[in-house]
Amino acid sequence: MAEKRYVVGLGEALWDVLPEGKKLGGAPANFAYHAGQFLGKDNTIAISALGDDKLAEETIEALDEHQLKYLMPRVPYPTGTVQVTLAEGGIPIYDIKENVAWDNIPFTPEIEEIAASCRAVCYGSLAQRNVVSRENIQRFLDATPADCMKIFDINLRQNFYSKEIIQQSLRRCNVLKINDEELVIIGRMFGYPGLDIENKCWLILGKYDLDMLVLTCGTNGSYVFKRGQMSFQETPKVEVADTVGAGDSFTGSFCAAILNGMPVVDAHKLAVEVSAYVCTQNGAMPTIPASLRNM
After folding, report:
1. Is-above-0.90 flag for pTM?
2. CATH number, domain 7-293
3. 63 near 41, Cβ under 8 Å?
4. R_g over Cα of the chain
5. Region 254-261: what's the mean pLDDT?
6. How far is it, in rounded angstroms, from Cα 75 to Cα 85?
7. What is the DSSP string of 95-160?
8. Which stretches of 189-263 are assigned E, i.e. beta strand?
């Protein structure tokens, strides 16, 4: 029997402590959950680390409730939390606690086995803020097959990134997902002044030999750049409940659509519709309606 090939969300496992209570968060779980709504929940997995505490037990309960597969070894650090306050327009502001379990993700034989047969993986810069997780995330990426879709969802948070971490991550990915604010920061960091956003994107695509670059610009639409092709989609106007997890739902559904053989323009359209729907719901992991899943 052929070895199972998972789509992996790799990195931080944490709880978003919101004004109305706490919800399981972290880009890897959100990504895996949304990709799984299109690829089948048995085909996606979230990889991180948990503490030996009550919050770890609650994490497992929440993952089981969402029928999300996970591989999250226990380590002697507290399970991660983020204090989230919502600014005007439902935009989240994060206070991310440090020296927690997901800063110390081990590279176990089980994790290595998944890396060796990984179909796609999404990772960010946040989970690489500590040397332990950074080195083990890089080991995971280096152990994936040549045809693995490696999505670097840059996800700049607070001051938890550096030029070196971003360059190392760009060299290991074949798809970059970035938003317009992050593109400005990267432009300054890498010395790309005076270029408009499209030229910045083409430059990064070529410099790092990427298959695709996905740029989201909030209410101003989103782009997918691929050699010789650019897709632009307007952002639908919706009644926003909160935007937590919307970006991860975009990435997860886009990845799933590409893996399912959908053309870039159609995959992009689906991702936009999915993330717009998630914005109308509270929390990062709503069930996507069948009308969208069957697009």
Report:
1. yes
2. 3.40.1190.20
3. no
4. 18
5. 97
6. 28
7. EEPSS-GGGG----HHHHHHHHT-SEEEE-SGGGSSHHHHHHHHHHHHTS-TT-EEEEE----TT-
8. 212-216, 222-226, 229-233
pLDDT in tens, 12-48: 999 988 777 888 888 999 999 999 999 999 999 999 9
- Do you know the residue count of the chain? 295
Between β-strands 14-18 and 120-123, what pairing exists: parallel, antiparallel or unpaired? Answer: unpaired
Q: N- to C-terminal Cα distance for the chain?
A: 31
Instruction: Give residue 142's identity as a one-letter amino acid code.
Output: D
The answer to whether residues 55 and 15 touch, using CB atoms and an 8 Å cutoff, is yes
Contact in structure between 241 and 224 (CB atoms under 8 Å): no
Write down the residue that tokens 């010395």 correspond to.
191
Amino acid at 144: T
Sheet holding 222-226, edge to edge: 69-71, 44-47, 7-10, 120-123, 149-153, 175-179, 212-216, 222-226, 229-233
